[in-house]
């Protein structure tokens, strides 16, 4: 049995869902009548999917009307149709009785016998949409509707955000409120915009605030296998539960919060990577820059930074990673469009885990942050999950669970005209010495490994991809990777992309990883690890490759691309046209570098210096140096903005033990 408030009913009425034998669930409207038995009206009959424990655990009526969302003991979410007119259901149930009401209002019984006897007059509805086992085998604990979204909780430590697409349920994203809270029971939305997560942590009842990221209450009650109820108001709050047959009550008056947050934190640990998503103009708020950051605290954060107030406001927090987030990549074009910014975001890091999201950001003057951000989880991939699907895996050596993705780069220009379902490709630098290429089909929510190479035989720190267009219109996809020995390898992955696309189309998303082959060219740029790498195309069709190293040096390499053998249909030949090195350009690791123009270079180091360089016939000359305030610099991102007068300005954002925009 479960109760569910239904929009449109009077305050004294509520819906009752009852599960019975053979997976049949009844929907009854119950009206309280003071001094008399409740008035009960049968509204619908539903059939739950077959499973071992075939009963529902919770239900809710979305505000759109005409639908019913249920969670069952198997962990599935179900969407059923329901009549938007109670009179139609009442008439259909009362036809066999020859009356206009299924219940005699003057009877003393809570349910008229004819209502049960003639329930066969109502059809047994099957679900319109089923998300099987969404919360695992431990079951769904609650379903809540808030605004245009549906939220479900389970005993898997996760609550999910969903929406209705026609008559289908679509999962947008999942949230882990805090570590250790594996038994989530319910969600409460407060008037001040906070989301309270109610659940059990070990043998304690916990109320977790998503806004402040802390436990508001922790009450020892013995654990979650018990009946309980929690109620709060602006003046007091109460928690009642049953323990050892006794009814226990915890009550306390609300005290004013004396804690004042002077500056809210973006992450709990250092920021390892940052990407600039774009800018959103909001009336009366000016221009807001949207960034995505990844941290050692295992989360990624979408935030808005106002140039007017200089305040960073988190818009969304992504908590799908089980280890640190070390690399981010955005699939261009980013926008903006009529509805704001839209792009695909890839995040990767420890435990060889990649997550993919669709980000939608638009101005919203009514909200506190002035920007509305919608996050849709598209796909995910883990190497050990790939290993667990292999046959005879007990005879194989499992992949290194400590493998980390160090860098990501989206392969440009891979939308294929010959296929109706275009794939996007992602290159990853891995700590196990490999360069891997993944394919993403957003419509099918598939992210698969399509190619790899262990050429470097040591940790690969950076990877970049770029597109070369030949005179005949042919395009070649090129990749460069840098390792801890200071070498930079250049690959032509055009045939790999074409072969993977054909194989993915034929096998519907499951392929054996291809071999990237041998690189076209390898350049020993540094004496130790390459911590920063950037590729810039010159107007002459050449490519300027800039890199920074652990030893504080900067290396520039100008490459020319031509067909091998002199034929347009042949392979690719790379030639080093010019090289220049600047030893001791910085006093510490160079962890950020960007080529702004063919003659202009920007570098940033752990020595907290941001240096602008001019590249000319005489080599690299320092133009200016700015000291920034972020210690332990991890990464640098740059973008250009055309001002109203036609002046071109360059902006950069730095991350490490903090975040700074210049």
TrEMBL record:
Could you say which residues form the signal peptide?
A: none
Q: What is its main location?
A: cytoplasm
The family database entries (Gene3D superfamilies) matched by this protein are listed as: YVTN repeat-like/Quinoprotein amine dehydrogenase (2.130.10.10)
Could you tell me the Gene Ontology terms of the biological process aspect for this record? tRNA methylation
Any idea which UniProt keywords this protein has?
A: Cytoplasm, Repeat, tRNA processing, WD repeat
Q: Where is this region: Disordered?
A: 91-112
Q: Where are the transmembrane segments?
A: none
Location within or outside the cell: Cytoplasm
Kindly state one GO CC term assigned in the UniProt record.
cytoplasm
PANTHER family linked to this entry: WD REPEAT PROTEIN (PTHR14344), WD REPEAT-CONTAINING PROTEIN 6 (PTHR14344:SF3)
> What role does it play?
Together with methyltransferase FTSJ1, methylates the 2'-O-ribose of nucleotides at position 34 of the tRNA anticodon loop of substrate tRNAs. Required for the correct positioning of the substrate tRNA for methylation. Required to suppress amino acid starvation-induced autophagy. Enhances the STK11/LKB1-induced cell growth suppression activity.
Q: Which family does it belong to?
A: Belongs to the WD repeat WDR6 family.
Q: How does it assemble?
A: Interacts with FTSJ1; the interaction is direct, and required for 2'-O-methylation of position 34 in substrate tRNAs. Interacts with IRS4. Interacts with STK11/LKB1.
Quote the protein name from its UniProt record.
tRNA (34-2'-O)-methyltransferase regulator WDR6
Organism of derivation: Zapornia atra (Henderson crake)
List the top taxonomic levels of the source: Eukaryota, Metazoa, Chordata, Craniata, Vertebrata
User: Gene encoding this polypeptide?
Assistant: Wdr6
């Amino acid at each position: 049995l479960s109760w569910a408030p239904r929009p449109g009913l009077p305050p004294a009425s509520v819906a009752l869902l009852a599960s019975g034998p053979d997976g049949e669930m009844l929907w009854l409207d119950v009206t309280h009548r003071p001094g008399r038995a409740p008035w009960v009206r049968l509204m619908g009959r539903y059939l739950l999917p077959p499973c071992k424990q075939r009963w529902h655990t919770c239900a809710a009526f979305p505000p759109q009307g005409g639908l019913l969302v249920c969670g069952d003991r198997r962990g599935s979410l179900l969407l059923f149709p329901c009549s938007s007119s109670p009179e139609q259901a009442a008439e259909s149930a009362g036809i066999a009785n020859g009356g206009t009401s299924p219940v005699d209002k003057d009877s003393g019984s809570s349910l008229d016998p004819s209502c049960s006897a003639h329930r066969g007059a109502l059809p047994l509805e099957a679900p319109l949409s089923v998300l099987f086992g969404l919360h695992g085998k431990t079951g769904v604990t609650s379903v809540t509707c808030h605004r245009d979204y549906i939220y479900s909780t389970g005993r898997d430590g996760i609550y999910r955000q969903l929406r209705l697409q026609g008559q289908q349920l679509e999962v947008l994203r999942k949230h882990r409120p805090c570590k250790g809270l594996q038994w989530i029971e319910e969600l409460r939305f407060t008037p001040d915009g906070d989301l309270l997560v109610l659940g059990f942590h070990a043998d304690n009842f916990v109320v977790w605030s998503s806004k402040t990221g802390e436990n508001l209450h922790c009450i020892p009650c013995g654990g979650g296998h018990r009946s309980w109820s929690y109620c709060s108001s602006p003046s007091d709050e109460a928690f009642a539960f049953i323990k050892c047959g006794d009814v226990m009550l915890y009550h306390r008056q609300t005290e004013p919060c004396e804690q004042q947050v002077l500056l809210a934190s973006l992450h709990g640990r250092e920021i390892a990577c940052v990407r600039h998503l774009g800018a959103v103009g909001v009336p009366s708020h000016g221009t807001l820059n949207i960034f995505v950051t990844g941290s050692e605290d295992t989360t990624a954060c979408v935030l808005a930074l106002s140039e007017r107030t200089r305040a960073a406001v988190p818009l969304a927090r992504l908590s799908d990673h089980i280890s640190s987030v070390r690399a981010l990549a955005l699939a261009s074009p980013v926008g903006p469009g009529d509805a704001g910014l839209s792009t695909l975001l890839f995040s990767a890091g420890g435990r060889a885990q990649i997550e993919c999201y669709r980000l939608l950001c638009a101005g919203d003057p009514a909200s506190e942050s002035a920007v509305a951000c919608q996050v849709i989880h598209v796909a995910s991939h883990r190497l050990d999950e790939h290993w667990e699907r292999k046959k005879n895996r007990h005879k194989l050596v499992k992949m290194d669970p400590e493998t980390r993705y160090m860098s990501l780069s989206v392969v440009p220009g891979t939308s294929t005209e010959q296929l109706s379902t275009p794939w996007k490709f992602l290159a990853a630098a891995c700590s196990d010495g490999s360069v891997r290429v993944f394919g993403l089909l957003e419509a099918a929510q598939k992210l698969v490994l399509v190619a790899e190479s262990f050429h470097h035989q040591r940790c690969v720190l950076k990877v970049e991809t770029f597109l070369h267009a030949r005179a005949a219109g042919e395009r070649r996809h090129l990749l460069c990777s840098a390792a801890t020995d200071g070498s930079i390898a250049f690959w032509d992955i055009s045939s790999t992309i074409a072969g993977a696309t054909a194989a993915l189309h034929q096998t519907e998303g499951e392929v054996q990883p291809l071999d990237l082959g041998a690189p076209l060219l390898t350049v020993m740029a540094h004496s130790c690890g390459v911590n920063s790498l950037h590729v810039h195309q010159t107007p002459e069709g050449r490519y300027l490759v800039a890199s920074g190293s652990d030893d504080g040096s900067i290396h520039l390499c100008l490459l020319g691309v031509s067909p091998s053998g002199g034929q347009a249909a042949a392979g690719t030949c790379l030639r080093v046209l010019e090289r220049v090195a600047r030893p001791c350009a910085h006093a510490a690791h160079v962890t950020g570098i960007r080529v702004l123009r063919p003659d202009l270079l920007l570098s940033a180091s752990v020595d907290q210096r941001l240096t602008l360089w001019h590249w000319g016939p005489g080599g690299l000359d320092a133009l200016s140096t700015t000291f920034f305030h972020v210690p332990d610099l991890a990464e640098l991102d740059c973008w250009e903005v055309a001002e109203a007068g036609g002046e071109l300005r360059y902006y950069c954002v730095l991350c490490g033990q903090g975040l700074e925009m210049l």
